Amino acid sequence: QVQVVESGGGLVQPGDSLRLSCVTSSSIFSLYTMGWYRQAPGKQRELVARITSGGTTTYENSVKGRFTISRDNAKNTVYLQMNSLIVEDTAIYYCKAERTFFQLEYWGQGTQVTVSS
User: Taking burial as the number of CB atoms within 10 A of a residue's CB, which of 72, 83, 106, 112 is the most buried?
Assistant: First the structure.
């Protein structure tokens, strides 16, 4: 079982920045595709950003140009740098580690991000 732990959430004002971190316990972290998802109250969980083992990134349209996903394989960690935050970014942010070919996926418990003036 792979442990996935997010951190870095908090309460910020519109226009502020936050960096989320996600650490996994896997010794083969570099082989995982890592994703950040979010779920706002009353809404479905949605993909925010994903980075493959090869470093290819994808983003949800509303965060393009504001959020950046990156990974540090030496630290078994994936980051989500969030700039120019808006109220609509308020949600619980979850990290997922996946190896699709093997039908493996592991979720973290989530970290709350609240953007409010």
Answer: 106
